[in-house]
Design goal:
Radius of gyration: 17 Å
Largest sheet: 7 strands, mixed
Structural class: alpha+beta
Shape: globular
Number of strands: 16
Number of helices: 8
Helix content: 25-40%
Order of helices and strands: HEEHEHEHEEEEEEHEHEEHEEHE
Strand order of the largest sheet: 3-4-5-6-7-8-9
Length: about 280
């Protein structure tokens, strides 16, 4: 399958093919978790494991067959040999988001895959292998949650539900926050909001919870990597937002952002927040 010249024309068949590739990688992560993870530290001192590498190899191979010639920016590969130039359309991949959670024995880790065009995510897939859940969407065409056994094709989903974010509840907001990276700036923002519940969790599952309407806000007021955010951005937000992707000149780092389930909450609670998502 070749990607259309206009990436905004992506369809359900392509989404299913990409979901199946992600599902195969999800099964590889779970298999690696059951064996030796072969942990080592990267130059930035973050951990990488055999599960990261196994998932990345399968995803890159699948993308090479599905979208031959497409530029792919993937976390581990980009750290070794970043692309010399980023075209208008490319794929962003985090083969295992939440490696620390995996090593701690928690289930809050994901695979994130996004198609990006002109700096904006157009399609996103966030899979939580240990939960058998996939959140996915095409910008402007809605999002859905699948119950999918890792390794099964997208057509094998045993539950499929359309999802949407929810209006801010009058009883107070549910905030999802990083278990490993909750910095003082995010703490300060949360202190100004009417928070009814705060959930600490890892990886892009936070985007999934906002996308399905079980949470309302996810602040990350420090720099993070594009492959951590782009897929969740596509699933949560129905239209483009100020964040832009393909920032090779900044090592694919993104500035602060706040992901909102209810876009009207941006002005109601946070004023002109920098880089809102959703």
């Amino acid at each position: 399958m070749r990607l259309p010249n206009d990436i905004t024309a992506v369809d359900g068949r392509l989404l299913d093919e990409l979901t199946t590739i992600v599902s195969v990688a999800a099964a590889a992560i779970l298999a690696a978790r059951a064996g030796s993870l072969e942990v080592r530290a990267k130059p930035d001192l973050s951990p990488v494991t055999a599960a990261d590498h196994a998932a990345e190899a399968l995803i890159l191979d699948g993308l090479a067959r599905l979208l031959p010639g497409m530029c792919v920016v993937s976390e581990e590969a980009a750290g070794c040999a970043p692309p010399e130039r980023i075209p208008d359309s490319f794929v962003l991949v985090d083969p295992l988001d939440g490696t620390r959670e995996l090593l701690a024995g928690r289930d809050e880790f994901t695979i994130n895959v996004a198609l990006v065009s002109d700096g904006c995510p157009r399609l996103g897939i966030v899979a939580a292998p240990a939960w058998g859940v996939v959140w996915r969407g095409i910008v402007g065409r809605g999002a859905e949650r699948l119950r999918l056994a890792p390794g099964a094709p997208a057509s094998g989903a045993y539950e499929r539900s359309a999802i949407r974010t929810r209006p801010s509840p009058p009883s107070g907001l549910v905030a999802v926050v990083s278990r490993s990276h909750l910095e003082p700036q995010s703490q300060a923002l949360l202190a100004r909001l009417p928070i009814a519940e705060r959930r600490a969790c890892g990886s892009a599952v936070k985007f999934g919870q906002i996308a399905e309407g079980s949470a309302d806000v996810y602040p990350r007021l420090s720099a993070t990597c594009e492959w951590d955010v782009a897929a969740g951005h596509a699933v949560v937000t129905p239209e483009g937002a100020p964040l832009t992707y393909g920032r090779a000149f900044e090592s694919f780092r993104l500035p602060a952002f706040v992901a909102w389930g209810d876009p009207s909450a941006v002005s109601r609670y946070d004023g002109p927040a920098q880089n809102p998502v959703g």
